[in-house]
Amino acid sequence: MGDAAFAPSFRSGQGTSLALVGAYVLAGELATHDDPQDAFAAYERIARPFVEANQALATDDNGAFFLPKTQKDIETRDHILAEITRNGTAGIFDNTKARVHNALRLSDYASV
Ligand SMILES: Cc1cc2nc3c(=O)[nH]c(=O)nc-3n(C[C@H](O)[C@H](O)[C@H](O)COP(=O)(O)OP(=O)(O)OC[C@H]3O[C@@H](n4cnc5c(N)ncnc54)[C@H](O)[C@@H]3O)c2cc1C
After folding, report:
1. Which atom of ligand 1 is found nearest the CA of 3?
2. What is the pLDDT of residues 33-44, one digit of tens each?
3. Which residue ranges in the chain fall short of pLDDT 70?
4. Does ligand 1 come within 6 angstroms of the Cβ of 14?
5. Closest-CA residue to 104 (of 64, 38, 35, 52)
6. Taking the model in full, what pTM does it have?
7. What ranges in the chain are assigned the alpha helix state H?
């Protein structure tokens, strides 16, 4: 579960979200299946594409942003992080990442 099962990288972020989503889905599937093997299979079917899509964010330009190589890129990163601290992320990043972050619609297991 969480980092022990599918730690993403610093470049992708999302470690806490994946850990919480994984725990929620696994608990929900165990609670709604009689056979744990069926629950584990359902958990993997639901969680794996979401985990892999979020891990794949590490291959985009996050590395260049967080680990800049030039003085100019360091200053750009620091400026953006200062802006986020002051005003939040609205308008700073494109919504590609947000789409991946929000790609999984969680079941309401309590009502199943
Ligand atoms: C510097 C840094 C910055 C990060 N920033 C972000 C961020 O901005 N956003 C984000 O989503 N994620 C971030 N992460 C990742 C995030 O912290 C992890 O993905 C998340 O904490 C994983 O949760 P987890 O419960 O799987 O593991 P952990 O939080 O590591 O919890 C595992 C727990 O198990 C305990 N433990 C280990 N071995 C044993 C044992 N033998 N017996 C009993 N207990 C044991 C440990 O002490 C620990 O408390 C960051 C990580 C780091 C290191």
Report:
1. 26
2. 999 999 999 999
3. 60-63, 89-94
4. yes
5. 52
6. 0.84
7. 3-6, 15-32, 36-55, 62-66, 71-87, 96-101
